Amino acid sequence: MRDVHRLEPSSANLDGGTVLAAWERFVQGEDQVPGVRPLVAISWHRCREQYRVDPHLTEAPVAVAELDHTPEHDVVFAELGFCAASVAHEVGNLGGAVTVTDATGRILAEWGDQATLARAGDSNLVPWFCWSECAVGTNGMGTALEAHGPVPIRGAEHWCQAFHNWVCAGVAVRDVVTREPIAVLNICCWRSRLPASTESWLANVVTRTQHPLKRRARDSGAELVAAYTQARARSGAALAAVDAAGKVVIADDMASVLLGVPACTPAVDPTLRWNPGLPELITAARYATRQAAHNPDWVGSTQIFAHLADEPTSISIRPVFSSGHLIGNLVLFGVSDGAQLPQAEAAAHARVQPRRLVAMRDNRMVLLRLPEVFFAESQGNDVWLSTDQGRLRAASLSLDKLDSELADLGFMRVHRRYVVNLSRIREIERGLKGELSLIMDDRADEMVPVSRRNAPAVRRALDI
C-alpha cells in the first residue's frame, strides 16, 4: 500500500471532543449531531432506533449466522486474504491490524502487529466473532456492510464507547448482480490515525477483486440468453430471462410489454440489465433463488401485476444453473406450472417498513413523517427528498431500496429517477405527445415526469 508508512502521530483524542459530545447527547435520546459526518449520524440512528445496540457493550458476540458460500465468494475471500497478507507487515509496523469478514460481519482471519492483535482480543476483535452493525453498532467492518465505498470510522464515531480508542476503515466487496455484500476488508489501529492512502488502497482492492466477478456475471448473462433461446423454441408462452436480482437479461415481444423493457435485446453486462420496476417479480425471483438452492428441480408459480395489465398475470419461474450454481430464472407468462409461492412470502421477507424517513440537513438528522415527503429523486450517488421542510438528502443509499420500503405506503415509482407520494399530487399535466407530468402539492409547484412505461400503472393508481 503506497504511503502506508506516513502515519500521523498517535492521539487519544481523535476528534477534538466534538464527536464525543454529540455521541453523549445522542445516546441519551437527542437527535442533533453537530460536527458528525452524515454517514456516521445515519449509522448511529440505525444502532439506536433499529438495532437497539447497547452503547456500553464492551465486546463483540460470537458469530452464529452461517452462509452458503458460492465458488465466486470463495475466490473473493482468497483474494482479500492475499491482499491483507501482502500489507500485513507494513500495517504491523504501524501498530495496526488487517481483518477480513464475511457478509454477516464474522471475522474470518486477521493479520498485523501482535500487541495490537492481543489488545483486539479484549474486545473479541478476533476470528469467529461478529462485527456487524446490528451486533456492535457503528464500526469499520459493520458499517461497510451497510454502505458503498470505503468507510472510515474514527474514535468516538464508534457506537460503543469501549471502541472509542480504535480507528478503522473498511470496504465491502459486493456481488455485481445483486449488489449484496460478500466480504469486508478492514484496517484498524489503536489510538492512531490511519495513513491518508488507506481509503484509496481499499477502493483499489475492491476494483481488482470485482474484475473476475464482472467477467463471470457477463458469462452468466450469455448463458441465460442461451437458456432463453432453447426454452423459446419449446414453448409458445411469453418468455423472459431474469438474473438473481430480478433484472431482465432478455425478453420476447410479449414479455417485454408486460415488463416494460426493450424486446429481444440481450443485456448480458450486469450494469446494463433492465430493471422492470415490479417488486412482486423481484420478490418471486429471490424466493426462487432460495428454493432452488435446496432443490435444483424446483419450479414455482405465482401472480404479479405487470405493466399495461389491469389484472394479475400468472407466471411460472424456472431456475437456470451453470456448473451447479444458480445464475437466474426463466419467467413464463400466462403459465401456472410448479409449486405455488406462498402468499405470505412477500410479507415474511420484506424489510421492516419505515414509519419515518431519515434525512440529513448539514450535520443534523431529520426524522420525517411520510406525509411530509412529496417525492424522492435519485441524483448521482445520492437520493434527495423534496419535503415540507425543504430539499434534504435521504439516508437511503439507493432509490430502489427506498422504493421497496415505501411501495405499500402510498408511494410509487413513476420514473427511473423518481418515487412519488401519491397523496401529494395536486394536478396532472398531459404533454403534446401524451406524456404525463405530476404537479406536486407544494409552494413551488414542482413537476415530476412520468416515464412512458410507468404511465399505465400511474393512471390505474390515480384512477384516471
Brief digest:
By secondary structure, the protein is of the alpha+beta class.
Characterize the structure shown:
By secondary structure, this protein is α+β, with helices and mostly antiparallel strands. The protein is built from 12 helices and 21 strands. It has helices at 18-27, 38-51, 71-93, 114-121, 133-136, 140-146, 198-234, 253-259, 279-294, 345-349, 399-406, 455-462; strands spanning 96-102, 107-112, 151-154, 166-174, 181-190, 238-243, 248-251, 300-304, 313-322, 325-333, 339-340, 356-361, 364-369, 373-379, 382-387, 390-394, 411-415, 418-421, 425-430, 436-440, 447-450. The strands form 4 sheets. The chain has a 7-stranded antiparallel beta sheet. A 6-stranded mixed beta sheet has the order 7-6-10-9-8-11, with helices on both faces. A 5-stranded antiparallel beta sheet has the order 2-1-5-4-3, sandwiched between helices.
Topology readout:
Blueprint: H1 18-27, H2 38-51, H3 71-93, E1 96-102, E2 107-112, H4 114-121, H5 133-136, H6 140-146, E3 151-154, E4 166-174, E5 181-190, H7 198-234, E6 238-243, E7 248-251, H8 253-259, H9 279-294, E8 300-304, E9 313-322, E10 325-333, E11 339-340, H10 345-349, E12 356-361, E13 364-369, E14 373-379, E15 382-387, E16 390-394, H11 399-406, E17 411-415, E18 418-421, E19 425-430, E20 436-440, E21 447-450, H12 455-462
Parallel strand pairs: 8-11
Antiparallel strand pairs: 1-2, 1-5, 3-4, 4-5, 6-7, 6-10, 8-9, 9-10, 12-13, 12-16, 14-15, 14-18, 15-16, 17-18, 19-20, 20-21
Helix pairs in contact: 3-7
